[in-house]
Amino acid sequence: MKNFETNESFIFSLIIEDLEETISAENKIILSQWRNADPENEKLYQEFLGVQINLDKLMERHELDAHHSWTVLDQKLDHSTSFFSEHNEPVQPLRNKTMPYFWVKIAAMFLILSTLGYGYFFWKNKDIVINTGTAVLTNVVLPDGTDLKLNAGTSISYSKNNFLADRKLVLIKGEAFVQVAANPTSRFRVELGDVEAKDIGTRFNISRNENQSAVTVEEGQVELREYGTARKVNLTAGKLGIYDVMNKTLMAIDNPDPNYKAWLDKSFVFNAVPLPEVLQKLETVYQTKIEMEGQELKDRKLTAKLKYQQPDSALAVIAATLDCQLIQRNGKFVLAGK
Question: 307-316 in b/e burial notation, b at 16+ Cβ within 10 A?
Answer without folding.
Answer: ebeebeebbe
